[in-house]
Amino acid sequence: MLATAAYRGTVLLLWAQVAVGAWVCRGLFWDGASFLANMLETGTYHDFYPARAHVAWLNETPVLLLARAGVRDVHVLAMAFSAMLFVVPAALYHLALSRVRRHGVLLAAIVAVVAMVHLPTCFFAVGEHLTTYALVTATVAIALTPREPRWRDGALMLALGLVGIASYEAMIYLGPATAAVVLWSLRGQHEPLGRMLTAVAALAFVGAALVALCTVMQYWHHDHFVRVRAAAFDFWQNLQFVIPLFAVAAMALAALVFPAWLAGRGPLVVAAFAAALLAVSPWLREVRPAAYLFPPSHYVARTAAGGLLLALMLASWLYVAWPKPGPVLFATMRQPAVARRLVTAMFLLVLGGAVPDLWMTRMWTDYLGWFRGVVTGRTGVVAADALPLKQWPYRLFAQEWTYPALSVLLRGAPEQGVVVLANDYTSNMPFDPLCGTVPRLEGYRWP
């Protein structure tokens, strides 16, 4: 019963996030505003980065179809764009959860991915990592839980692998690992079509790794990627990431040393404490000003989240592939009561992580409303330096490159204001030349 409640609760949270994210246009956060403006301005995909093109095509096609059908209501288009950014990961995680719902420990692992990888990095919704991490999770879940007829599993994994070919640089290590799990799933499979589709799916993930490798080599010395590499270990800035990370690390260490610890209430106690800390994290700033939730830290933590996903997926594979009875730890985890406790513990982290997500969403709606008030209440160029964008709480969501794009998207009339920051774009150059420009968007308006 507890495992079923955790499964249903996690799925419900994922789809509730889709609905809320679309309603409040969370896809406009940070680079999202520039992406949408460029799509509407050019009438085509914003695939400035070919190595991630497949995810861009998947997320942006509905918006472009609506625009070509004559929709000029920017609010509707922004909602559609935001919806797609959340729909694809939600659908993939739902698929993964449904595949493992009757496999206690695997269900705990997928719920942990939602709590520790998805929720702490999803405010940066326009990031391709959200879809990439979800498709890897779904693929591994399918490979570890084979069903008949096997050709369906092979076809599904192949479809995910084709998307993953041009998805995200993290495939440089996620690709080979996923390919290995997919190839392992061939054991005992005698259906020719299923074997062929599964083998090609593995090849697709190898291809994803090669594309990621070529991309990393090409952009290794690019200023933006140098900064990204330098920030890879700054994940500690993301409270939503480090709190569940330390909690699960403590559980894992205790279980490795004393496997019998899992049979008690220890995991629930640790998870409950971490969930409570997550739930109060939006207000920690009142006690310690330096400890506060910062939406851009979702961008910073995405690299570490990819490494954590790799560890969780490999651990799940090891658990399934190890010949029984296996070590004492695995034998303990296979006990139904222990598996249920692990699922419940991970679900507590999901519930705790949902609180800061809701808090930041509420703060985002206030920011978007305030910013639109600035745009609609003024005319011409509005100097960003004259606005309190560096003050609390506006600095939580401000990104100087996207001020012009966000301004034009939120305008109700062509003569209304455009917020612009004085920038020579030499000392502070955006990663994409189109960022920071003022789109025209003739005929589009936010009613």
In short:
The chain is mainly α and 447 residues long.
Write a concise keyword list for the protein shown above.
447 residues, mainly alpha, two-stranded parallel sheet, 16 helices, 2 strands
Strand and helix map with partners:
Blueprint: H1 2-23, H2 31-42, H3 53-68, H4 74-100, H5 104-118, H6 129-144, H7 150-164, H8 171-184, H9 192-219, H10 223-230, H11 239-257, H12 266-280, H13 297-321, H14 328-333, H15 336-376, E1 381-383, H16 403-410, E2 418-420
Parallel strand pairs: 1-2
Helix pairs in contact: 1-4, 1-5, 1-15, 2-16, 3-4, 4-5, 4-6, 5-6, 5-13, 5-15, 6-7, 6-8, 6-13, 7-9, 8-9, 8-13, 11-12, 12-15
Question: How would you describe this structure to a colleague?
Answer:
The longest helix has 41 residues, at 336-376. By secondary structure, the protein is mostly helical. The chain has a two-stranded parallel ribbon with strand order 1-2. It is built from 16 helices and 2 strands. The protein has one domain (2-365). The protein starts with a helix and ends in a 27-residue tail after the last strand. Mean pLDDT is 90; it is low at 427-433.
Could you tell me how far the N terminus lies from the C terminus, measured between alpha carbons in angstroms? 47 Å
Domain module tally: 1
Measured as a percent range, the helix fraction is: 55-70%
Largest sheet: 2 strands, parallel
N-to-C SSE series? HHHHHHHHHHHHHHHEHE
Tell me, briefly, the overall form.
Answer: globular
Mean model confidence by pLDDT: 90
